[in-house]
Amino acid sequence: MSEAKIPAGSTAAGTIAVAAESTVATRMSAPPSFDVADFPVPHGREEEWRFTPLERLKGLHDGSATADGSMKVEVDAPEGVTVESVGRDDARLGKAGTPVDRVAAQAYSAFEKATVISVPKEAVLAEPLRIRLQGEGGTTYGHTVFDIGAFAEVAIVIDHTGDAVRAANVDFLIGDGAKVTFVSVQDWADTAVHCSQHNALIGRDASFKSVVVTFGGDAVRIHPRVNYAGPGGEAELYGLYFTDAGQHQEHRLFVDHEAPNCRSHVTYKGALQGQDAHAVWIGDVLIQKTAEGTDTYELNRNLVLTDGARVDSVPNLEIETGEIVGAGHASATGRFDDEQLFYLMARGIPADEARRLVVRGFFAELVQEIGIDDIEERLIARIETELGAAAA
């Protein structure tokens, strides 16, 4: 287990050891860019690629993948929401963030039309805004922008199913005082490949809650990133993943505190089972000199259910000002607790049901954070299915 906490008023001196790898200087081999040519083809030795099985990305990383696939797209937009198909010259594209690796730059360079979904200011949507993406084979690229007006309140769900090789960027422009909940579900077929960068630009006193749920796919690499456009912003980043035999699931987070008096909280939890199941979690938080009054914490927990699974969990924290409320991180990976199992079985609960109860309890906090009943029910059912497959 790795854990560190920096109390209010502490200086960065003497604490940088908890972030042996600097968020800015060492983690990326090239600066952010919209031009794919600015990124060298990765070979797996680079810091940001060392955990990723490049040979399983189907050419997304080296330019050999061509856009020869199809994706069925359904958008269920509540009344008042505008959905547009725009060209690359639209000023809203790229405003929330710039691609930070070659795959994200390739996705930005390769899409034909981007989708911009706008929620007017002060709108309070009673129902979630839903996008369903069903892969129908081949390689596709995409770019989606959510433009959320000031003081609006909205829940957004993007649901990925089917088979595809997919690279995409998803941007959030969040107006002052707005409240946004975003749920991204990766429920792909076992052969799918998915790489996506999520960029959130949070306005003054606005809040953004992201919930990333990953079950399916052969290789999935999700990169959520948060920036603050003004003081008082809040970001909550949650993640739930269940990694099966042979799957590679990678979640790489970066929270850039530049504005003062902002808050961020990160909690990701994963369960792994089966031979060569591989989960990667990288959590980077940067507190810049101008970000006085920052309060941040990041947590990653992993539950290894069987032999043969592997977890790489790397929290990083870089602090450039001592005038903070608090900052810290924790990471732990452990095997299934046989004592808990024995405790439940001793009270007459069968072994399979006891195992389910332990895993349900592990994930319960995160499932409740989603706040959308049908998604929560679906995830609980999927966890049951995963556990049933292991017991069979």
Automatic annotation (TrEMBL):
GO biological process entries: iron-sulfur cluster assembly
Pfam family, one: SUFBD_core
Family annotation (InterPro entries): Fe-S_cluster_assembly_SufBD, SUF_FeS_clus_asmbl_SufBD_core, SUF_FeS_clus_asmbl_SufBD_sf, SUF_FeS_clus_asmbl_SufD
Limits of the SUF system FeS cluster assembly SufBD core domain: 133-362
Family per similarity comment: Belongs to the iron-sulfur cluster assembly SufBD family.
Protein name: SUF system FeS cluster assembly SufBD core domain-containing protein
